[in-house]
Amino acid sequence: MTDEYELKRFSAYFRGWCQAFGEHESIPGGAEGISWLLGDDQVGFILPQHMTKPLYREVLRTIEAPLLTLGRDSVKIGKLQYQLAQFADHPAMIAIQKVLESESRSHLYLTSHFMYGPGAKIITLSNKKPLSIIYKEIGRMRIRLSRE
């Protein structure tokens, strides 16, 4: 079974600016090194440094974002593919489904949190629209959830 969703992408007006992620439950990085943040109506993740720039280029620095496919054990976006062990039952995947299947529109943008250091950026999927004083809409993005 496969479902597809559309969300709005946002970028800060000025490089490095972002709002705080807020209160959350943290799931430290496993073998893949991806740390997950689960909050009310939002999910965030922090990637290891070597994975960050290629993902930003694919998602946040383009006019047309490629399709993001979340599968049982992998994430694929554009030319990038990441293997994730048993992701289908992971609490982050369940939280992502909840955000996407909500009646509210979904948004994608960068946030930060003091617990993860000044340079750490959190890629955030949220039902809450980001602050318009900090962010501008840069386009739309499709996400496909594959439960097969």
| Sheet with most strands | 11 strands, mixed
Q: Indicate the overall shape.
A: globular
In terms of structural class, how would the helical and strand content be classed? Answer: mainly beta
Give the count of helical stretches: 2
Low-confidence segments, ≥5 residues, pLDDT <50? none
Strand content: 35-45%
**How many angstroms separate the termini?**
6 Å
Helix content: 10-25%
Order of helices and strands: EEEEEHEEEHEEE
Overall pLDDT level: 86
- Total strands: the figure is 11
User: Any idea what the radius of gyration is?
Assistant: 14 Å
Short description:
The chain is mostly beta strands and 148 residues long. It has helices at 49-59, 91-101, and strands spanning 2-12, 19-20, 25-27, 35-39, 42-46, 68-70, 74-77, 80-83, 107-112, 122-126, 135-146.
Q: Please, could you describe this protein's structure?
A:
This protein is mainly β. Helices cover 15% and strands 41% of the residues. Strands 1, 2, 3, 4, 5, 6, 7, 8, 9, 10 and 11 form an eleven-stranded mixed beta sheet that branches. The chain is globular. The N and C termini lie close together (6 Å). The model has no long low-confidence stretch (mean pLDDT 86).
Topology of this structure?
Blueprint lengths: L1 E11 L6 E2 L4 E3 L7 E5 L2 E5 L2 H11 L8 E3 L3 E4 L2 E4 L7 H11 L5 E6 L9 E5 L8 E12 L2
Parallel strand pairs: 1-9, 2-9, 6-11
Antiparallel strand pairs: 1-11, 3-4, 4-5, 5-10, 6-7, 7-8, 9-10
Please name the defining characteristics of this protein.
globular, single chain, mainly beta, 2 helices, 11-stranded mixed β-sheet, 148 residues
